[in-house]
Specification:
Layout: H1 2-24, H2 31-48, E1 51-52, E2 70-72, E3 82-83, H3 86-93, E4 98-104, E5 107-114, E6 117-123, E7 129-131, H4 134-137, E8 144-146, E9 152-160, H5 163-175, H6 184-192, H7 197-200, E10 206-214, H8 223-232, E11 240-243, H9 248-258, E12 266-273, H10 276-282, E13 292-296, E14 302-313, E15 319-330, E16 333-339, H11 343-349, E17 356-362, E18 366-372, E19 392-397, E20 400-405, H12 411-421, H13 434-443, H14 459-463, H15 470-483, E21 485-486, H16 488-494, H17 502-511, H18 516-521, H19 524-528, H20 535-546, H21 548-557, E22 562-563, E23 578-581, H22 591-600, E24 604-606, E25 615-617, H23 626-634, E26 637-639, H24 641-648
Parallel strand pairs: 3-13, 21-22, 23-24, 23-25, 25-26
Antiparallel strand pairs: 1-8, 2-7, 4-11, 4-12, 5-6, 5-9, 9-10, 12-13, 14-15, 14-17, 15-16, 17-18, 19-20
C-alpha cells in the first residue's frame, strides 16, 4: 500500500507540473526534477505491475465512438431490496457478520480485466443489458489500466462525480449558455455515456469498487478481504465497516454523522453478508439478491407554507426560480429556501403562493420540495428580469421550460462578462477581480467592457475607494495599459461569444488570416466550412457579429486596443505533425514560444510521448531522460532545435 500511495503522490505532482507548464505558462519544477520523478514513477509501475489511468506515463489518445454498443451482462445485476428502518438491518444479519458501506448515488459500472489489462467497461443498464463505455472508463480518475493479475477479473463499482466538481462544471455550463445538470448523479450518467472521451476526461469521474463478480474465490471467503485485495491492485474500494447484529445500528449512526462532510452524493448504505459461501447459499428472489439489502436515508420531511418565489438572473440570462417558505428544521439546520431549477418544475408541482408544501433534503444535503399538498397553481412567472427590468421570455429548451432575459446589457450578466473579459486567456488584466468588477459597477464606472479602458477618468474616486489606494490604482491602470496590445484570438475569446472557447477563437482567426472585418462579415455557410466548427458554433458566431450592439462595442474597443501581428502560414506546413518539446532551448525564448510557433504553422504540441508523436524536440538527444527513452521505444525521431529549424522554419 505504501507503494500505491507513493505512486499516487507522484502522479498528482507530475500532472500538476504538466498543467502548470503547458496550460498556465509557468514552471513548478525543472525538467531534470520532472524526469527524475517520472523515472521513479515508471520504476514503481514496473515493480507493482499497476498503471493508473491518470498516470503521465500513459497517453492512449482520446477516442470518439458513433454510438454506445449494447452488451449483455454474464450475470444479471439485480437491484437491492430496501429498508428505512435500522432495526431491520439487525434482523437481516441474525448471527452472521456483515459489512456496511456507502450506497453511492452515481452510475453502476462493471469493469472487466483480461491478463491484467482493462478490457471492457459496461454500465448496469437494465441489469441484463448495459452499454459499452470502455473509451470513457480509461479516463476515470483512479481506474487502473494495468494490474498484476492473470486470467479474468470482473469488478462492480460506482462511478461518481464530487459535489465540488459538480458545482464547477455547472458554472462552466452556465457561462457557455448550456443547460446545467440538476444533481451529481445526472452529471455522472451523462459524462460516462458521452460518445467523445475527450469530454469525459475533463470531468473527474471517480470509480469506487464495491464487489467482485468473477475471481472472488481466489481472494478468500470474506468479501472484505476481496476489497482489500482490490486496493492492493490499485483500485479504490468503497469505505466499509464490519458489523454484527449488535453493532449495525451504531454503525449506521456513525455513517449518518459523516454524510454532511462526505464529498460524494450518497442515498444510503448497503449491508451485505461478509461470507461468500453463506451468500451463495441464499440465492435470490425474482427481483433482489438475498445476501444484501439497501438502507435508505429516512428523509426528514417537514410541512411548511410557500411564502414567495424569488427570481434571480444568472450569468447567461437564465432567470432561475427559488422557493421561499416558512423556516423549518431539517437534518439539524434551519431551511427556508429551495431551488426550483426551472419553470417546468413549477408547473409539475402546480405551485402557488400560500400553498402547503412538504420539503426535505435530498441525500441529507440539498433542500428540495417533495410535494405540494394544496396545488393552487396560481404562481405567476416573473414578467420582467429582476436585474434590469427587461421583459422576460419563456423558452422551451429540449422539453424544459425556462425563463430568459435577452437584454445583452443586463447588469446581472455584465459582471460575469467583465470577469471573463479580463481573464488570463482573454485580455489578461491582472488584479481585476470579481469584487473589483462589482465595486466599479456599483459606482457607475463601468456599464460595458469598453469602460475598462476609460477608468483613468475616475482616478480620484478609485484611489479613495475602500480596498484601493495610489499603488493599487497604478498597478491596475498599468495592467489595463499592457492589455491594450493583444492577439486577435484572445480578444475574440474575451468577447464571450457562446460556444466559442480559446481553441475556437484560434481556428476562427487562422481561417480568416487574423482579419477581424472578414470574421465579422462571415456568413453562416462560410463559418460552417471551418474544421472543428459545427452548426451551433457557426450560428453563434454569425449571430454575434450581426448584432448591432455587439459591433458598436467592438468598434468602441478598437479605439483603445492594438492587435499584435501574427505570422500565419498560408500553407500550414506543419499540419498533421505532432511534436513534444523537452529540455532547454537556445533560439526560442522558452517552450511556450516554440509551441506557439508550431501551432501557427498548423502543427500540434503534446505534453507526453505516444505512438502519435511525430518528433521529440530535445537539444540533448543522447540524454537518458524518460522522454528520450519513451521516444526510442516507440520509434519517435528525436531532433534538436537546430534540426527543427532546418526542416521546418
Amino acid at each position: 500500500m505504501r507503494n500505491m500511495d507513493e505512486m499516487k503522490n507522484l502522479i498528482n505532482l507530475l500532472n500538476e507540473a504538466s498543467k502548470a507548464y503547458y496550460q498556465e505558462n509557468r514552471e513548478i519544477m525543472t525538467d531534470r526534477e520532472y524526469d527524475k520523478l517520472y523515472d521513479k514513477l515508471v520504476k514503481l509501475e514496473d515493480e507493482t505491475g499497476i498503471v493508473l489511468s491518470n498516470s503521465p506515463t500513459q497517453n492512449v489518445g482520446f477516442e470518439a465512438v458513433e454510438n454506445l454498443k449494447k452488451v449483455a451482462h454474464e450475470k444479471e445485476l439485480l437491484s437491492l431490496d430496501k429498508t428505512k428502518q435500522p432495526e431491520a438491518l439487525r434482523d437481516f444479519l441474525g448471527e452472521h457478520e456483515g459489512i456496511l458501506s456507502w450506497k453511492l448515488d452515481g452510475l453502476t459500472v462493471v469493469l472487466k480485466y483480461r491478463e491484467g489489462r482493462l478490457f471492457q467497461a459496461v454500465t448496469r443498464g437494465n441489469g441484463q443489458i448495459g452499454e459499452d463505455v470502455t473509451h470513457n472508463a480509461r479516463y476515470f480518475k483512479n481506474v487502473p489500466l494495468k494490474i498484476p493479475f492473470n486470467g479474468e477479473l470482473t469488478i462492480r463499482g460506482e462511478a461518481v462525480i464530487s459535489y465540488e466538481d459538480f458545482e464547477k462544471l455547472n458554472e462552466q455550463l452556465e457561462m457557455a449558455g448550456a443547460e446545467k445538470y440538476k444533481n451529481p448523479r445526472n452529471l455522472c450518467s451523462g459524462t460516462v455515456r458521452q460518445l467523445d472521451s475527450a469530454v469525459s476526461a475533463k470531468r473527474n469521474v471517480t470509480f469506487f469498487a464495491f464487489g467482485i463478480m468473477l475471481a472472488q474465490t481466489e481472494f478468500g471467503d470474506k468479501k472484505s478481504d476481496g476489497l482489500k485485495r482490490l486496493n492492493s491492485l490499485g483500485f479504490v474500494s468503497v469505505d466499509t465497516v464490519s458489523v454484527t447484529a449488535s453493532s449495525v445500528e451504531g454503525a449506521v449512526k456513525d455513517f449518518e454523522g459523516k454524510i454532511k462532510d462526505f464529498p460524494f452524493a450518497s442515498d444510503g448504505l448497503v449491508l451485505t453478508f461478509n461470507s461468500i459461501s453463506h451468500s451463495s447459499k441464499l440465492g435470490q428472489t425474482s427481483k433482489f439478491p438475498k445476501d444484501s439489502i439497501a438502507f435508505k436515508w429516512k428523509d426528514e420531511i417537514r410541512e411548511t407554507v410557500l411564502l414567495d418565489v424569488e427570481w434571480n438572473t444568472s450569468r447567461t440570462g437564465l432567470i432561475n426560480p427559488v422557493a421561499i417558505f416558512e423556516p423549518v428544521e431539517l437534518e439539524g439546520t434551519t431551511v427556508k429556501r429551495a431551488s426550483l431549477h426551472n419553470v417546468s418544475i413549477i408547473e409539475d408541482l402546480q405551485l402557488g403562493i400560500g400553498d402547503t408544501i412538504k420539503v426535505y433534503k435530498a441525500n441529507m444535503i440539498i433542500p428540495q420540495i417533495a410535494e405540494n399538498i394544496t396545488k393552487s397553481g396560481n404562481l405567476k412567472l416573473a414578467p420582467l428580469c429582476p436585474a434590469c427590468g427587461a421583459e422576460s421570455v419563456l423558452r422551451n429548451n429540449d422539453g424544459v421550460k425556462e425563463l430568459i432575459c435577452e437584454n445583452p446589457n443586463c447588469k446581472a450578466q455584465l459582471k460575469n462578462a467583465l470577469v471573463h473579459f479580463v481573464s488570463r486567456d482573454a485580455m489578461n488584466i491582472e488584479g481585476f477581480s470579481e469584487s473589483t468588477a462589482e465595486k466599479f459597477m456599483e459606482k457607475g464606472f463601468i456599464e460595458n467592457y469598453t469602460d475598462i479602458f476609460k477608468l483613468e477618468g475616475h482616478r480620484d474616486e478609485i484611489v479613495n475607494m475602500e480596498g484601493f489606494g495610489e499603488k493599487s490604482y497604478e498597478k491596475l491602470i498599468n495592467a489595463i495599459e499592457k492589455s491594450k496590445k493583444v492577439k486577435l484570438y484572445n480578444f475574440i475569446y474575451a468577447l464571450g461569444i457562446k460556444h466559442v472557447g480559446l481553441a475556437g477563437a484560434k481556428l476562427l482567426c487562422r481561417h480568416f488570416a487574423n482579419n477581424l472585418s472578414a470574421i465579422a462579415a462571415a456568413k453562416f455557410e462560410e463559418l460552417s466550412d471551418i474544421e472543428g466548427f459545427g452548426e451551433v458554433i457557426s450560428q453563434s458566431v454569425s449571430g454575434y457579429f450581426q448584432n448591432e450592439t455587439n459591433m458598436n462595442l467592438i468598434n468602441e474597443a478598437l479605439k483603445f486596443i492594438e492587435f499584435e501581428k501574427e505570422d500565419l502560414a498560408a500553407d500550414a506546413k506543419l499540419k498533421g505533425i505532432t511534436f513534444v518539446i523537452t529540455g532547454d532551448l537556445e533560439g526560442f525564448e522558452n517552450r511556450n514560444e516554440l509551441k506557439e510557433f508550431i501551432e501557427r504553422l498548423g502543427g500540434k504540441v503534446a505534453s507526453s510521448i505516444s505512438a502519435k508523436t511525430s518528433f521529440l524536440i530535445n537539444n540533448n538527444p543522447a540524454s537518458p531522460s524518460s522522454k528520450n527513452k519513451k521516444a526510442r521505444e516507440l520509434g519517435v525521431q528525436v531532433i534538436t532545435e537546430n534540426e527543427f529549424n532546418e526542416r521546418f522554419s
